[in-house]
Specification:
There is one protein chain. It is built from six helices and no strands. It is an all-alpha fold and about 80 residues long. Helix 3 packs across helix 5. The two termini are about 15 Å apart.
């Protein structure tokens, strides 16, 4: 699990996100902050998803993002498949 968290932090620090995130900062985020971070990521990689719940209640955002995650296919890096 720690390796996955490191990969996530590394990806958040790269283009196009540039979050200047650390494992400690990520761990300190509250649930709504994590939801906002996920929303920001979706808004970057799939603008149609990020814009749909700009002022929505968090429970609606959660449902919409969950559906997007379930339907979104993303190839894992080769090293993660091994």
């Amino acid at each position: 699990m720690a390796e996955i968290a490191k990969e996530i932090v590394h990806a958040l620090n790269e283009e196009p996100f540039n979050r200047q995130m650390s494992l400690v900062k990520l761990d300190d985020l509250k649930p709504l902050q994590l939801l906002q971070l996920l929303n920001d990521v979706f808004a970057t990689i799939a603008p149609d998803v990020g814009q749909m719940h700009g002022g929505a209640h968090p429970s609606h955002s959660h449902t919409h993002m969950r559906m997007h995650i379930l339907t979104h296919t993303h190839a894992q890096p080769h090293s993660a498949r091994a």
